[in-house]
Design brief:
The chain has about 150 residues and is of the alpha+beta class. Helices cover about 30% and strands about 35% of the residues. The chain is built from four helices and five strands, in the order βααββββαα. A five-stranded antiparallel beta sheet has the order 1-3-4-5-2.
Amino acid sequence: MDGFAFSIPVRVRFAETDAQGVAHNSSYFVWFEVARVEYLREFAGGYQSLRDQGIEALVLETHVRYLQPARFDDELLVHARCRDVRGARFKFEYAIERNGETIADGWTAHACVDADTLRPTRIPDWLAGAIGRAEAESSPSASSARASSA
């Protein structure tokens, strides 16, 4: 899917479904978190790198839009990208696909805080830089540049 820096496959587990085999609405937030944590591992050394520096990234707000139901044993692809990195805040956007069709999308808003005081703290330069590089690689202009150099 164009414009997303990262994707990870997820299979709908039986425990994530209701009696009709449809994924529970809360499962989508778990899949968002799986993608977000793996995104950070891929591009920024992992969420634990933040924690090792005494910083936590709290979730401030969440949103999901359900377009089609996911069902038990569906193979999904969860796409993630990070936007609006400024000060202490940043936002992840997501799209969930099944067989090339978007079945849900959404976002989560975050803030970095000092782990001891829970007071806002600026996003570390190394993290902002890693996100900037990851997102620059997935931009349409970067994709065009890669295609023309191939």
